[in-house]
Amino acid sequence: MPYFNFDLVIGAEFKSQGGMFLENAENAIDKADSLASELRIVRPELCSTGCAVRVTDGDSHELYRTPVELIRRG
Asked: Is there a domain that residue 73 lies in?
């Protein structure tokens, strides 16, 4: 099972939010989206600053990035 790392991206700074073994990248993307949703609630001050949650693989390659700020579509 691959290992994925999760970071809070604030400007050019990356703050580790931990990591976990997950079945695949799709599950890691779901976890990143969930973490961003939680951060919107517990750290609302991050919403207007362009912060994001990113996922990297075991080789530190970025796989996904999602904004903390909720993007409304439509």
From this structure: no
- Bridge partner list, 49: none
pLDDT at 72 over 90: no
Distance, in Å, from the CA atom of 72 to the CA atom of 69, rounded to the nearest integer, reads 9
Number of structural domains (the chain) is 1
Q: pTM for this one?
A: 0.88
Is 63 part of any domain? yes
> Stretch 23-48: mean pLDDT, rounded?
93
Q: Smallest Cα–Cα separation from 32: which of 53, 46, 13?
A: 53
At 31 the pLDDT is: 97
